[in-house]
Amino acid sequence: MKTARRHDIDWLRVITISLLLIYHIAIIFQPWAMFVGFVRSDQPLEDLWTPMTMLNVWRIPILFFVSGMGLYFAMRKRNWKQLIGERTRRILLPLLFGIVAIAPLHMFLFQKFYKLPLGYYPHMGHLWFLGNIFVYVLMFLPVFYFLKRNTGGKFHRILDRMMSNPGGPLLISLFFMLEAIWVKPQIYSLYAETWHGFVLGALAFFFGYLFVYSGNHFWETVKKWRWAYIALAMALYLLRYVEFQLEAPGYLMALESNCWIFGVFGLGYRYLNKPSQLLGYLSQAAYPVYIIHMFVMYGGAWLILPLHIHPALQFVAITVFTFAGCYLLYEFLIRRLWFLRPLFGLKGKQVDKPSVKMMVKEG
Predict the structure, then answer these.
(1) Smallest Cα–Cα separation from 61: which of 99, 12, 25?
(2) What is the mean pLDDT of the chain?
(3) Which of 259, 229, 257 is nearest to 61 (CA)?
């Protein structure tokens, strides 16, 4: 089977991680930030949270979808032993390193910011996502290799036919709606280290694989109907905003989440599936940036929040500091030092002009 380049999936991964950074920075300016382990500004920007609530129901699920797609591409050239070895190096090693050396850094800055007793303890922090991905790989690998061996079989044909009409992806949303009814999350957008996040992530990872496995009809469908999916997502968001004060019943938020994601996939497939030298660089940088962004962000907040400037300027300054700091650390340390590269999910040898591959690394 011919291997086609899928630049749009790489772009979506880069864009989504960038949005995740902005989302985390916005939390700093909410009155409840400290209760979720974030440093908090004494000058809140509560209006900033309104657009963030549009993002919060799909910001993490789309990364799980993309990670499942990435596994499909990785399986094309590897047997199960090679794949587990590669995922161990690219996911488990950075996770373990992050638990002992990265996540404690932003907790240290949190303690410093609030003048708490300074202490060190290993913890997962925002890297819980990597732990989930590694578990999903082990969980689903037998099923995925079974499907791979039966490409073109009855299930594959049914799936392909189902994805050729706009109702097919929406039918998949029923599984996510049932998850919300079954798990009953108190806050739908709270994914980190919760059963809701684990089950929802498993569904997204599994169906992300199936969407690519099913064939080209899924992508043509979401491209053709992208604005319809986005319109339905916006209608569900307005209902959530007006009738439910932004926390609607979980099954409605699950449907809204998937509609946003299908619309974004359609936009990406229509406009972003093009080669780019910049993408080659950003795609490689996205994973290390995800790993380091929390302590860089906390460092920026520690320096900028005490300044007597308008909170909107503080938000902009912390955003610039976070993106610039992550870039500098990646470009001049992580990317260039051979012994650091594997600890951040990169191959040991530096590639000066990285190519854009089909495989989407998990972030």
Answers:
(1) 12
(2) 93
(3) 257
Between CA 232 and CA 240 the distance in angstroms is 12
Helix (H) / strand (E) element for 17: namely: helix 7-27
User: What span, in angstroms and rounded, lies between the C-alpha atoms of 281 and 283?
Assistant: 6
Q: How many of the other CB atoms lie within 10 Å of CB of 339? A: 7
| Mean pLDDT confidence for 184-200 | 96
Tokens read off for 7: 């630049």
Structural contact between residues 294 and 24, judged by C-beta atoms closer than 8 angstroms: yes
Non-local CB neighbours of 101 within 8 Å, separated by 6+ positions: 343
Q: Which candidate, 233, 229, 215, 214, places its Cα nearest to that of 265?
A: 229
161's tokens: 């036919």
**Chain centre distance of CA 169:** 20
Closest CA to 75 of 19, 17, 177, 151: 151
Q: How far is the C-alpha of 199 from the C-alpha of 74, rounded, in Å?
A: 23
| DSSP string for residues in 138-163 | HHHHHHHHHHHHTTTSHHHHHHHHHT
305 pLDDT more than 50: yes
**Structure tokens belonging to residue 197:** 């996040």
pTM tops 0.90: yes
DSSP states of 187-249 as a string? STT--TTSHHHHHHHHHHHHHHHHHHHH-HHHHHHHHHTHHHHHHHHHHHHHHHHHHSTT---
DSSP state for residue 44 in the 8-state scheme: -
Q: Helix or strand or coil: residue 31?
A: coil
Q: Are 313 and 296 in contact (CB under 8 A)?
A: no
Report the distance separating Cα 346 and Cα 284, nearest Å. 8
Would you say 263 and 320 are in contact if contact means Cβ atoms under 8 Å apart?
no
d(CA 151, CA 169): 20
Residue type, 185: P
